[in-house]
Amino acid sequence: MHFVTLIRFKKKLTKEDVDRTDRIIRENPSIKVREMLWTFGHYDGILVAEAPDAETYLKFILQFTDYLSTETLAAFPREEALKLAGLR
């Protein structure tokens, strides 16, 4: 499954927060982080990832709630969505 997580920082990030993020990603090999982007505007960042299922991704993303507020969207590759919609 594909996920797009919109991120807001709850506080000014510290080096410890950055190190913790890197550690959480390393310790969860079933989550494939494809992109981690910082943004301007309403959200501070976007995380694009793949996980075996929604439950696994939820457990992963909840590890960041001390310093991040998140909103996650399930996403589908275009061709897969077209097939599901009966358009291919």
- Estimate nothing, just give the exact number of structural domains: 1
- The total beta strand count reads 4
Query: What is the level-2 CATH architecture name?
Result: 2-Layer Sandwich
Mean pLDDT over the residues = 97
User: What is the topology, as strand order, of the major beta sheet?
Assistant: 2-3-1-4
- Element pattern in H and E: EHEEHEH
CATH class: Alpha Beta
CATH homologous superfamily heading:
Apc35880, domain 1
Computed structural class: alpha+beta
Kindly identify the CATH topology.
Alpha-Beta Plaits
Helix content: 25-40%
What overall geometry do the principal axes of the alpha carbons give?
globular
Sheet-strand content, in percent, reads 25-35%
Continuous helix count? 3
Pfam families: GYD (PF08734)
Protein name: GYD domain-containing protein
InterPro entries: GYD/TTHA1554 (IPR014845)
